[in-house]
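Record pair follows.
FIRST:
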Amino acid sequence: MKDLLIYLKQYTKECILGPLFKLLEACFDLIVPLVMASIIDYGIAAGDRSHIIKFGGILVLLALIGLTCSITAQYFAAKAAVGFAANLRHALFKHIESLSFTEMDEIGTSTMITRMTSDINQLQSGINMALRLFLRSPFIVFGAAIMAFTVDIKAAIIFVIVIPLLAVVVFGVMLISMPLYKKVQGGLDNILGITRQNLTGVRVIRAFNKEHTEFENFEEGNENLTKLQLFVGKISALTNPITYIMINIALVVLLWVSGIRINIGNLTQGDVVALINYMSQILIELIKLANTIVLFTKAVACGARVQSVLAVEPSMISGTQHIGRFDDEKSNIKKKETGSIRENAGVDVCFDNVSMKYKGAGDMSLSDINFKADAGSVTGVIGGTGSGKSTLVNLIPRFYDVSMGRVLIDGKDVRDCHIEELRKSIGIVLQKAVLFRGTIRENILWGNPDASDDDVIEALKAAQGLEIVQGKENGLDYEIEQGGRNLSGGQKQRLTIARALVRKPQILIFDDSASALDFATDAKLRQSLKELSYKPTIFIVSQRTSSIQHADNILVLDDGELVGQGTHSELVKNCDVYKEIYSSQFKEES
């Protein structure tokens, strides 16, 4: 938790002023019982109306000053807590964005969402309450005890006895409940994971009539979470009744002792009222402190969970070498003057004895992969399900790092290259077409924020997506819903292809990204890729041999091994795996 306090650093002033104004309010609260005692002993008992009015006015003044201090303290505490939460969210989001796919796979999406939302909200509430009450409540408790000594020493001994006993109860409950709240947040992670899985897979669940099974799974997880919350809630709830019992016993003893001392003339009625007020203040503040500790206990548990994500070190460290279009800006300027700039050409891609194993996996996903894709060439990648096709192309933009060997781009190991520049030089279309809420233009400009409308239209033409825009009422300003819900699968794929093409990258990767396209559209897309003016190095991952049979080189994967490479005609003759795939798709022709 203490490691997270750096995000409060810029709110140091608020963290000081908030508790300070709360202490001022507490000081005025401690004076009130003495004023009341004076009104009783010297005003009411003596029948002095002017004394009652005078000290009654002082009570009103103390109330107004206390209210002003309380509002001011709340303002500073809220500003610090909200600012802390905002800074922490920014830092956590930035850190998550810096993690590789390996760490993201290991942590889990639902866990990261819980950390970003529920956990940080709990931290915000905990910081707010801590700034307001963690100093005020103990100050009132000990201040009331000290003030009781100014009234009567013997009666004040009761305060000395009861306060440590109350502290044992409050802090004992805190120590027991803190680890339990960690388990509660873990159960919340589980519920969020089940919910997310159900919402994203609702069509599949309904298609297989599995609603009741999922109801049962959710109910089981929810029931476990509820039982745990009830258990820890019962433990936390013990604080109030135990403290009430102890305080009320102390009040009975106080009244008994005070009654004896009034009889012998050592105490006045006003003094007794002041002592009872101080005891009541202790009760109220201890209940506040107990609730604050419960909330702060949750916050500490949540803080530890957030810190555990921040403590995850990214396994990928960006290199310093420049690549492709970023290699030499001065050289590029000269080339631009002669009409031959590096960014308008592909680059060589070489896999040198590459093996790759996912973290926690038993076997290699790729083993001893060797091939070279020449600049401007088209490389097809094919193989059965789980053969490692996506893994292979994910190594090029360095979504994952190789376990052994090297991936070379333009002769440079991708691990030595500046990671941002590397990915800017690559256009990738993933298996799952992901679009974001916004206009068609905004989605495509993700590929190149500086692209003009003409560039966007050019990319759409190449991606066979211009008809999508022309068929919409607002054209490029047509609003896409979250996840592209208002578009078909084929439309989403064509727009994601356009998003990659608008970048005019040196390397283009299509990871089975034309699966929703019909054969005619797929053929037109392949033809348009051949006609691109900037001639990128292209990788096409596909289950269809028709999509890759005209590639310059085809890689055939089987269980993570490269079992064949060459042209279509060569592989049909020499590679049994490729021949089997081709024959299954073109039986009559074969």
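SECOND:
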Amino acid sequence: MSTQPTERRLTIPRRRHGPVYWIGVAFVWASIAGLFFAGYLAHDLPDLDNLPPPGRAQTIEIRGEDGGVIHKYGDLYGRWLAFEEIPQSMVLAVLAVEDRRFFSHAGVDARAIARAFLANLRAGRVAQGGSTITQQLAKNVFLKPDRTLKRKAQELLVALWLEQRFDKPEILSLYLNRVYFGAAAYGIDAAARKYFGHSAARLSLSEAALLAGLLKAPSRYAPTRSLDDAQARAEDVLDAMLAAGFATEDMVAKAKAASAQLSADALPGDGLYFADWAVEEVRRLTEERAKPLVVYTTLNPTLQVKAERSIRDALRASGDALKAQQGALVALSPEGAMRAMVGGRRYAASQYNRATQARRQPGSAFKLMVYLAGLEAGLAPDQVFDDVPVTVEGWTPKNYSGKHLGPMTLAAAFAGSINTVAVQVSEAAGRDRVVAMARRLGLQGSIQPHPSLALGTSELSLIDLTGAYATVANGGFAARAYGVLEIRTADGALLYRHRPSEPRRVLDAETVRAISTMLARVITDGTGRAAALDRPAAGKTGTSQDFRDAFFAGFTSDLVAGVWFGNDDGSAMAGVTGGGLPARAWGRFMLAAHNARPARPLLADLETGESEKEKSWLERLID
């Protein structure tokens, strides 16, 4: 029996890989994944070798009637400062509050990130950031402000590139010359010139601390918005400099004692509500959106100062006691040229324009439209009406006094602002006719023919209401408020020039004379006696329900003005009527506005003859 040789099998022992091997494999794959991730992050980055220029918004320079600059819109950029030109106090102030380890980290500060993480964890919210100055530069110059993980990762990538491409002084110079400091100022030099009126090369320690403090929240801490908040933030910066060893106790004490003050040019100037309104007009009148523009307007700077003073002084003297927190004023030429505009108590605190944007119930100031409709319907100023209780469609109006005076003429009822007679006039003329009169005089908004229409319950803007009175003041021609005379590019090319429209009569001369006499009586012996001037004047008081709004609107032969007082939330004032606070403020403004002007009778231009009036308008149109 033969035996077969037995096949031998080779057994290869299985190799066991230790932890070093697997760490190596993980490192390789992590490197590959990292490369792919870096490529993903980098594929839509801008050209890192060419710093993108700062984006500049269109500049619009608003000038007054005298050619002086009222305000300039658009981003502000100053001179580029080399690192050696930037005061050391500014550098140290920024490092103290933004990045104390700037000169020792490589663009990303792990210690700062960990510190911020723990602080935010304890606070339960994002209370502290860990971004370095290099990261902030990366975000501000190269990246969009998106708050995404991708953008944050790209920020780290660009920060590392910046650290390789530039040295530390260059990075800091790039940052300070491009970062936003509020009030449309980009870069340290623009901010210094905007707030302090001089170059950043001359910054004091207190000024440097104020600018460094703005970096945390430029719009919130901008000294043009609140100097007190900006100075308080500057003191925090000084304390941080002391804690970091960047300043001595004596230096900090002196800087706090001599806190930074704004230059006169940095303070919110006169006419900013008007300037905002004028820019809206510019956008409507021209399609130019790129070239710098110079806009010449109708605003009279002298009258503007007087207008702002009249509202400010009235609120300062009586606002708190009377629970009136806001006021507004519009002053027009009889043809509609805007001479002064006050849109609120303080522009720096609120840019909401109560002269043009707010719609309020004008109360009895709307009776101008009611009585004009009545006069056109055949009623006469000496016609007698009964001040007795009346009811219209189940509604019974009440007089302010709560009393009824019996028979009285139409003129007397108008002067005394008798509500029952106004409703009778509205019903006699027809409410649709009253609405049509309001439209004819330029009043916008919802004006419904309800029985209460006669008492001014429709909401109107002050600018429209004042324009309606201007129509009477100029003799009965349509008056639309305007403020822009010319728009030119910075190199002088004319884009727009205001041309007076062909005169359009909307009230006949006899109706104008009649209503003007009635309006004058309001001031001489009616509800508007507090508005009396040293010359012939006409006007009407207005008070809405529960004293929420108080108006006075009126005119001389030279100027038309409307005044409003009230509260933004619509809360009631303490018994303020149109014949009180508004009439007094109107009277003070108009007296100041007419200083050194010769007194003229009402409708002086109308009395020269209607044909001459129309001729002058046509001559201006042709000129």
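COMMENT: The longest strand covers residues 326-332.
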